[in-house]
Specification:
single chain, 569 residues, alpha/beta, Rossmann fold, Ribosomal Protein L25, Chain P, 7-stranded mixed beta sheet, 13 helices, 27 strands, elongated, binds adenosine-5'-triphosphate, binds magnesium ion
Length: 569
């Protein structure tokens, strides 16, 4: 007898894994791997950041290394402690532990000292050109730049001016410190980039200690080097900044400032998602202009928004995994994200029933005080999730949508004279339709077949339609918030001429139902509890929910368009 050998794991490595494995093999960093996630605390994290978090933490974990959380707080005007706290919370929630927590502002002194060192080496100079003039001198993609008239200042003069910049002798914007590289370089980033600007702004950590602040490009690589980061992974728009990243570090010719080997920058494609926008600046606008109720509005692509909507960290990590690591820009289908949360909740969310648009159904041959207690499993495939008791009584709620007075062909739900199954309970037949003066259907009078208790026809007769329902005497009233996509177009930033990206905001992205009904077992459900309302979708208890004023958010419906796409291959 022969045994088939199992196929080896054939999942191919992504390009970052290839690089890390090669570095580990060559012993480049003595077998060490250290990555960092470097958010600027100027907004809440979004699903794009989640991608970066999963890559940085995921790779380090895979190769036995660590990941630092570094707040890139070099721009005091836009940064805030509220954002720092939210970022810490979101990274934790996603399921990651950082090795060290650092702030670029911790390095302000060292950055300053290194700047003086560069000045002394003749590698940096103080420039008095206005913003506008600097731009003009810098040229453009087709034209080489011109040297600033201040480029030839002596090291001594530059040092004196730089110290006076720091001391507050000059107005904001009057002078900057620039790296002396190459104004003719085909790479615009190398045309004597700014290193420092004067800005009288209070910093959320350093207060008023500094009047000059380093630029991102200067501070970033140096922060990496100080922390001993081995692989500095960022998004593609920084590809053209890489020579600058390297240049700043390489000027430390006698290795006085940074340990070796120096870190290296690698770029991957930024994640975009259909039907939403993903820049903190735009998300902030949506919040400030009150198009949404806050950063954690469940319509937002922020991590706190997705969390409030009912997403799990597992689903977001699975999404990041499925999207993969690419070298070319891409737009992920929001359907894939919805697919991931559905797959996860399918497994973990207990089932229960709720009625969003209630219509009264009276079982006329059931006595008013008659109660049949049914014991229903919370999850058909997971007995460990337990069961719940559900009351079948004379007065019930069903969904308005589940009744048609004039039933079209192939209508298996309720209609005059028709018989349906009340899920897991019994069979009922509609005998009479009660209307109000305006002709609105207000009540259905039905009879039940007592033999069908449990939901099956005693004689095996075919009953195709199955409806969800609740006991009207037991159900609780609740508010249900139905969420849809934030924008009506796949790419809201692709604005037709004369239009604005906000024109595509979806006015129906939030629908609030104030008179929905839910199972009484949910009376004490705490915010964050996730459930499947049978036939309706996945829901979670909102932060606003209180025992006497329950609020549920729809996370996503049950229909999975992506599963079909995936099945087709
Ligand atoms: P935004 O444009 O949304 O403000 P950002 O790049 O300015 O984003 P940072 O706080 O600087 O935000 O980002 C922290 C890290 O997250 C960076 O390494 C950045 O490359 C990464 N990142 C930001 N947005 C995305 C995205 N859409 N996809 C993947 N990574 C991202
Ligand atoms: Mg940024």
């Amino acid at each position: 007898m022969t045994h088939a050998t199992p196929a080896p794991e054939t999942k191919s490595l992504n390009f970052l894994e290839e690089i890390m494995e090669a570095d580990l093999q060559s012993g480049k960093h003595s077998g060490r791997i250290c990555t960092r996630f470097p958010p600027e605390p100027n907004g809440y994290l979004h699903i794009g950041h989640a991608k970066s978090i999963c890559i940085n933490f995921g790779l380090a974990k895979k190769y036995g290394g660590g990941t630092n959380l570094r707040f890139d707080d070099t721009n005091p005007a836009k940064e805030d402690l509220e954002y720092v706290d939210s970022i810490r919370e979101d990274v934790h929630w996603l399921g990651f532990e950082w090795t060290g927590e650092y702030y670029a502002s911790d390095y302000f002194q060292l950055l300053y000292d290194y700047a003086e060192y560069l000045i002394q080496q003749g590698k940096a100079y103080v420039c008095d050109l206005s913003d506008e003039a600097t731009k003009e001198y810098r040229g453009n993609f087709y034209q080489p730049g011109k040297e600033s008239p201040y480029r030839q200042r002596s090291a001594a003069e530059n040092l004196d001016l730089f110290r006076r910049m720091r001391a507050g002798e000059f107005a904001d914007g009057a002078k900057v410190l620039r790296a002396k590289i190459d104004v003719q370089s085909p790479n615009m980033n190398l045309r004597d980039p700014l290193m420092y600007r004067i800005r009288r702004a209070s910093h959320h950590r350093t207060g008023d200690a500094w009047l000059i602040y380093p630029m991102y490009d200067y501070a970033h690589g140096i922060s990496d080097a100080i922390e001993g980061i081995t692989h500095s992974i960022c998004t593609l728009e920084f590809e053209d900044h890489k020579p600058l990243y390297d240049w700043f570090l390489e000027q430390d010719v006698d290795a006085r400032f940074f340990q070796r080997p120096l870190p290296h920058q690698y770029e991957f494609a930024r994640l975009n998602l259909t039907y939403t926008v993903m820049s903190k600046r735009r998300l902030l606008q949506l919040v400030q202009e009150k198009h949404v109720q806050g950063w954690d509005d469940p319509r937002m692509p922020t991590l706190c928004g997705l969390r409030r909507r009912g997403f799990t960290p597992e689903a977001i990590r699975a999404f990041a995994e499925k999207v993969g690591v690419a070298k070319r820009d891409m737009v992920a289908d929001v359907g894939l994200l919805e697919h991931c949360i559905r797959e996860d909740l399918e497994q973990r969310a207990p089932r229960t029933m709720a009625v969003l648009h209630p219509l009264k159904l009276v079982i006329t041959n059931l006595a008013e005080d008659e109660v049949h207690w049914l014991e229903l499993p919370n999850h058909g495939e997971r007995p460990e999730l337990g069961s719940r008791k559900v009351a079948l009584t004379r007065e019930l709620w069903i969904e308005q949508d589940d009744f048609r007075e004039e039933a079209p062909k192939k209508w298996f739900r309720l209609a005059p004279g028709a018989e349906v199954r009340l899920k897991s309970a019994c069979l009922v037949r509609c005998q009479e339709v009660v209307k109000d003066a305006a002709g609105q259907v207000v009540e259905l009078h039905c009879t039940w077949d007592p033999q069908s208790l449990g939901g099956n026809a005693p004689d095996g007769r075919k009953v195709k339609g199955t409806l969800h329902w609740l006991s009207a005497t037991h159900a609780l009233q609740a508010e249900v918030r139905l969420y849809d996509r934030l924008f009506t177009t796949e790419d809201p930033m692709n604005v037709p001429a004369g239009g604005d990206w906000r024109d595509a905001l979806n006015p129906h992205a939030l629908e609030i139902l104030v008179a929905a009904r839910v199972d009484p077992g949910l009376a004490a459900a705490v915010p964050g509890t996730r459930l499947q309302f049978e036939r309706l979708g996945y829901f979670c208890v909102d932060l606003d929910s209180k025992p006497d004023a329950l609020v549920f958010n729809r996370t996503t419906g049950l229909k999975d368009s992506w599963a079909k796409i995936e099945a087709k291959g």
